[in-house]
Design a protein that fits this description.
The chain has about 270 residues and is mainly α. The chain is about 65% helix and about 0% strand. The chain contains 9 helices and no strands. The longest helix has about 30 residues. The radius of gyration is 19 Å and the shape is globular. About 0% of the residues have low confidence.
Length: about 270
């Protein structure tokens, strides 16, 4: 008897239907891998008493390792045995410029307004970026690259383009967005002092899901994330933060042209 034929591949324009369980399992797998890779180096970093510059560079390297694992895990699960995987499945595509800019600007205004109101209401600090304060151009540039480039690109790829998309296979928009936002906020826990800020981060995660749902663009949510992290970093490293933030936003405006017009990764 002849072996059965390979299962048919999805047509070029079909949205991949990643099972909803991919989201939590991929998250656990990614952070398990990160723990294995990073844990051996943490005692060395804590005991060695690194200089400000070395500590900032170490932060950038550790963040690159962590977020590379997140992106790699998302790609492995998204591939899921299929041979058809396209950049636009993750929102890497061109969209209509001004509607996308309009939705991004509206989201920034609403989420920033909530953040400022929450901070004023509770009298809490805006975040933990001030803990990264260093002196010297190299340290400031390393912090800016870590917070404004690496974190927005990789976190939006995993949590919006993959995690939220997988949840949307089974859940409605608001259900998927709320779960994504709550988990995204919880993962930013950095001690008791960070608890008052976690609702702000959770609301930010929900808002990012809604923008991704409306625009179908990974570049839109990366630009928003980079803007927020630029605001948070400008007091620590003003010149690198503004320069790096402007370059990331500019890249989010220009790179979609190279990706070309493709179908939206989310349903109409």
């Amino acid at each position: 008897m002849r072996p059965p034929p390979d299962p048919p591949e999805l047509p070029e324009a079909a949205r991949p239907r990643w099972p909803a369980w991919y989201a939590p399992v991929a998250l656990v797998a990614a952070f398990g891998a990160v723990s294995v890779l990073v844990a051996p180096f943490l005692p060395v970093l804590l005991i060695s008493g690194l200089s400000d510059t070395a500590a900032a560079v170490a932060l950038l390297i550790l963040l690159l390792v962590q977020d590379s694992v997140l992106v790699g895990t998302a790609l492995l699960f998204a591939l899921g045995g299929r041979r058809l995987l396209r950049p636009w499945h993750f929102g890497i595509r061109a969209t209509r410029l001004w509607p996308t800019v309009g939705w991004a600007a509206l989201a920034i205004a609403l989420m920033l307004g909530f953040e400022l109101a929450w901070i004023a209401l509770l009298g809490v600090d805006e975040g933990n970026v001030d803990d990264l304060e260093h002196t010297g151009a190299v340290a400031e540039t390393a912090v800016a690259l870590a917070v404004i480039v690496v974190a927005p690109v990789t976190e939006e790829f995993f949590f919006r383009a993959f995690f939220y998309r997988a949840l949307r296979t089974r859940l409605a928009v608001w259900s998927g967005a709320l779960i994504d936002g709550l988990i995204f906020g919880a993962l930013h826990f950095d001690g008791v002092d960070s608890l008052p800020v976690l609702p702000v981060i959770a609301v930010f995660g929900v808002g990012q899901c809604l923008v991704y749902e409306r625009t179908g663009s990974l570049f839109a949510v990366i630009a928003i994330h980079a803007c927020f992290n630029t605001f948070a970093t400008v007091g620590v490293a003003p010149v690198p933060a503004l320069v790096v933030g402007a370059l990331v936003v500019l890249g989010c405006l220009l790179l979609p042209r190279l990706a070309g017009r493709r179908p939206s990764p989310v349903a109409a």
